[in-house]
Fold this protein.
Amino acid sequence: MSTALKIVDNATCTFCGCVCDDIELTVEGNHITKAKNACVLGKAWFLNHHVEDRPVALIEGRPAAFEAAVDRAAQILVNARYPIVYGLSDTTCEAQRVAVAIADRIGGCLDTTTSVCHGPSGMAFQGVGEVTCSLGEVRNRADLVIFWGSNPAESHPRHWSRYSTMPKGLFVPNGRKDRTVVLVDVRRSKSAPAADIFLQVKPRKDFEALWALRALVKGVPLDESIRDETGLTLEQLQDLASRMKRCRFGVLFFGMGLSMTRGKHLNVEAALALARDLNEYTRFYVKPMRGHGNVTGADNVVSWQTGYPFGVNLSRGYPRFNPGEYTTADTLARGEADAALIIASDPMANFSQPAREHLARIPYIALDPKETPTIRGATVAFTTATYGINTPGTVYRMDDVPIPLRPAFESPYPSDQQVLEAIEQKIRQRQGVTP
Amino acid sequence: MPRETFILIPGRTSRQGTTLNEGKLTGAYLDEISTLQMNPDDMTRLGLNAGDRVRLRTDQGTIELPCQPAKPGELPAGVLFLPYGEWSSRLMGPETHATGMPDSKSFDVELETL
């Protein structure tokens, strides 16, 4: 491989849902040596994804030819009675489409990592609706920016500087000076010093605090006892409710502090309902802070292909949606799935112990650029190229805006899309389906 | 040894994010996800020093790991923080209450000093 110096302009970082597409990469051979404009997480993403010395495929832990691994993967999936396809948040939309096709062919459950991040938010969107906007609108218009249950300083470091609090916009020409920034969280995280107002809500009391704000916005009287319930004084809540009603363009970004805490979709529904209420007085929006680089793309692709964003069962030949029944944390923990295809995710590290124990008992196929606990336990494991660094394609930013990828260098490993297309082709052959 | 119920918040940290890219099987990542942060006053009350090991237990599992004091004011009394990863997941229950999402933040754990 050539070691000539190469500059890649406007490369896209796919580490987090900000999907910053203004990165200037310096590439030497198969190493990225500089990532100008990238945050600390983006730099770690670009500078640590070089070509690793691993077999392209493993069958039961032993190096195998690609074709043999594809054949074994197809055999496992075709022979299964309740297969699941899971992951997908760290790969391209093009690969996600093929994964949907595989789930459809084998009549399996199709689920993405959304179900264990903002899946409850997806349920809340269905229940209440989403008053939505793009990050470009936030950049140009927002004068009140609230972060609730999220810690952008550590999880989305450029969100502030690129989209939400710092930029000088059309209607906020002085940037940060024209904005009020509020952080609501259980702990005084590293994001707190950058906020104008920090409100420390009691653990597991987000719903109550949001509902109290709804009441105050509507003019319903509350008394001082709200402090015992939420940890926030009546004065603090009245001040925030007043700021929300008086702003010209307000936005509430919520993190997994809402969706992962008891109440889950109800917590998010409270935030969505508050934003809806506020539109009687001003323009107010609510957006989830999405984690993985293309988890938003997974929602979009699965929705446009099946009508539902995650937790979809295709066993009857048509899609059915039921979180709690068809979601992977459940199908594994209850011991229902009898085979799995896992793409670009690590349930062996992130799922509950019963779910992990069941996954270890069933045959499964895993695709990942790096070695992970899930790859180590896979019946068939594929080493794949890294999306955005080695492969082109499309990803969706957290505000549902599609962004193209501009790869830095070629990988000797196939892309997720190529592996999935090969498996789908082999499944067709085994099922006797004419291409 | 003293046992007490705390609320555990697993969450993302900057170091977890950077070391994740080096690999989930690397020392720095494993060190980050296996260090518990506690309210300094809680540590003093329980006679814990930085680096002392504690045992955390739920119905689902038990883990032992070292603790460090959080920055003053960062964590309220009775709340623990652990960078999200394999160890925090060992304490998480499988029940999703018909959402697909286990209770992954702000769940009760029993802490025992060792």
